[in-house]
Write a structure and sequence with these properties.
The protein is mainly α. The protein is about 60% helix and about 0% strand. Strands 1-2 form a two-stranded antiparallel ribbon.
């Protein structure tokens, strides 16, 4: 346990984070890979003045004050300090909500074994997007790149597409986010990116990374009425074209879109016709090369 004297020295030192990590060093491996609670409320009601001051420090970004308060808790604890995970969650949540990178960095250093694989914290981060905050969370828990949100059937990449920070989708893609996971049938990241209004450059990146092109993706591109995006997907539609596609194209009232869909449907029909012709020709050639005793085999 760190004494009050050492706590004071740490706060007065030139580096405000000189003695961080103290809380979990007292626990050894007891906190290894511990997870913050799920399903918490964003707003934490302080149980005493000390908690109120800690949360206020998170709001204002006063990392020296917060470090002093954390050391005060440690100096009052017994031989093994078992951190209050609900309080820890509230501190992390407040730092993320307020986009306080210094505070978040202090908390991550203070709690070196707590995982950031927490749906509530990540949702809060997407609601208050800040690339530097995500970099800190990602460094602690690399698996947040492909975190799934079961209630909404989305993934972190899909949430990034919805985010108001235009840098987040590319960040997640740069770090290996799965381009096909999430979404209801066939309505994954590519569908989300098109419907939410992501730029052409990002949609190209998704397709280059292997995002599946489906019928519902083509419909989304038509509804967006962007011929540049539609051109990327309409000629690779594996589901073919039906009445709904032509109706959707007509409803746009955009002659360029209507012409493109009709052209893509015609070319798809021609490709299928050519493929069928090749298959029939190959079958006839194989049959003609057989001797009479090989038929039926």
């Amino acid at each position: 346990m760190i004494s009050s004297r050492s706590s004071q020295t740490a706060v007065e030192s030139e580096s405000p984070h000189a003695e961080t990590g103290f809380i979990e060093r007292t626990c050894g491996k007891d906190l290894l890979h511990r997870y913050l609670p799920q399903g918490c409320h964003k707003k934490h009601v302080p149980r005493d003045d000390n908690e109120a001051e800690m949360l206020d420090a998170c709001v204002t970004g006063d990392d020296r004050k917060l470090q002093h308060l954390l050391h005060a808790i440690d100096s009052q604890s017994g031989p093994v300090f078992d951190p209050d995970l609900m309080l820890a969650y509230s501190l992390f949540a407040t730092a993320i909500e307020q986009k306080q990178c210094k505070i978040l960095n202090l908390l991550l250093t203070t709690y070196p074994s707590l995982s950031m694989h927490n749906i509530d914290l990540l949702r809060l981060a997407f609601e208050n997007p800040d690339l530097d905050i995500f970099k800190l969370l990602h460094t602690r828990s690399p698996d947040i790149i492909n975190m799934e949100f079961e209630m909404s059937n989305t993934t972190a990449l899909m949430e990034a597409c919805v985010s108001s920070d235009p840098t987040l989708p590319n960040y997640f893609l740069d770090h290996g986010a799965d381009v096909n996971e999430g979404g209801f049938p066939d309505a994954g990241p590519l569908y989300k990116a098109i419907t939410i209004g992501q730029p052409l450059s990002f949609i190209k990146r998704l397709i280059t990374a292997g995002a599946r092109i489906t019928g519902i993706v083509v419909l989304a591109a038509m509804s967006r009425q962007d011929t540049s995006i539609l051109r990327l997907v309409v000629y690779d539609n594996p589901d073919g074209f039906d009445t709904l596609d032509f109706i959707t194209a007509q409803e746009t009232g955009n002659e360029a879109i209507i012409a493109m869909v009709e052209d893509a449907a015609r070319k798809l029909y021609e490709r299928k016709k050519e493929k069928m012709g090749r298959e029939v020709k190959a079958s006839k050639k194989q049959t003609s090369s057989k001797h009479w005793w090989q038929f039926g085999k």
